[in-house]
Amino acid sequence: MGLRLYFPLGQLLALLLLFLLSTPSLLIAAEQLEKSSNNRCDIFEGSWVFDNSYPLYDASQCPFIDSALNCQNNGRPDTLYLHYKWKPIGCDISRFDGEEFLERNRGKKVMFVGDSLSNNQWQSLWCMLHAAVPNANYTLASRGRITTLFFLEYGVSVMFLKNGFLVSLENRTLRLDTLSGSEEWKGVDVLIFNSYHWWLHTGRLRTWDSYQIGNQTQKDMDVMEAYKIALTTWANWVDSNIDPIKTRVFFQGISTVHYHGAEWNEPGVQDCRGQTKPVEGSNYPGTKPPGDEVVKSVLSNMKKPAILLDIVLLTQLRKDGHPSIYAGGGLDCSHWCLAGVPDTWNQLLYTILLQT
């Protein structure tokens, strides 16, 4: 497994000490804390509970949301999905304070690197920060594949770099041992990486025909094997180039899709259409996506600390949170309405940054 954070504070302080020493034993120590604690709290294990103080912002007041994610504006008639918060078993996560986030990251750069699910989380953070400081001066600029929201008073940059594979795609060949755009990752204070959904594309959506490692090219390879090689290339770059005293590295875990009702014990349901409530409780009937094991395996073998935002379970339970038919065209049971589920991903990110 990748690095997971647990309470109480004493254990987190011990983990922080290990982090500051930058020892390769950090991930091992985290696992030992998990096994030895009699009073632990895994912030990624829990359930969704109704809380009328949510959502954290009004989507109609956020100027940054892509139209396909603005479900209320696209005519979604129900609003119950907006009022759920994530409740870990045995503890609470910090309620997001956007002004404090900006103060703590004054003068820093925060970058999301990945596919459209990274973009989903990035837009969510934009809205959460804008709601906290609605009168703050900001600039929004694009350069190449990077879009940057800059808060002038705080000197904080919140960036998105579109890069769905992390490795290079050249002439419809995925070069599994060569990263794409890694020079852009340097000098950033908080990096949140993501890569998974593009690897699952088939048919006309598939953008590659072959794989290359070194000088060897092959047409056929198990997709999860290729994914693991690519993530290992990324992990080796982190181990070789990141100073964990200066840069925090996160990996956004796998976000669940809901296209088969049988996965949540509703075999008569075709997909996420018409879903208005989460799956109750803290257990999901369906299996975890195959990439989850790959991600945890790669992160557990890293020499430098990389923190997994393990969003698999909390997204599995939210069959109600997708744009569905309210995406401005077509059916979308992969991305997430805003306001919505990605706000919790940012709350978890915020909680971890506060504790470490």
Task: Give a description of the structure.
InterPro entries: TBL, TBL_C, TBL_N. With 356 residues, the chain is α/β, with parallel strands linked by helices. The protein has one domain (6-355). It has helices spanning 9-21, 26-36, 98-104, 116-132, 223-241, 290-300, 312-316, 341-355, and strands spanning 6-7, 41-42, 46-50, 84-88, 109-114, 138-143, 146-151, 156-162, 167-170, 173-179, 190-193, 210-213, 216-218, 248-252, 307-309. A seven-stranded mixed sheet has the order 6-7-8-5-11-14-15, with helices on one face. Strands 9-10-12-13 form a four-stranded mixed sheet. Strands 1-2 form a two-stranded antiparallel ribbon. It is globular. The two termini are 19 Å apart.
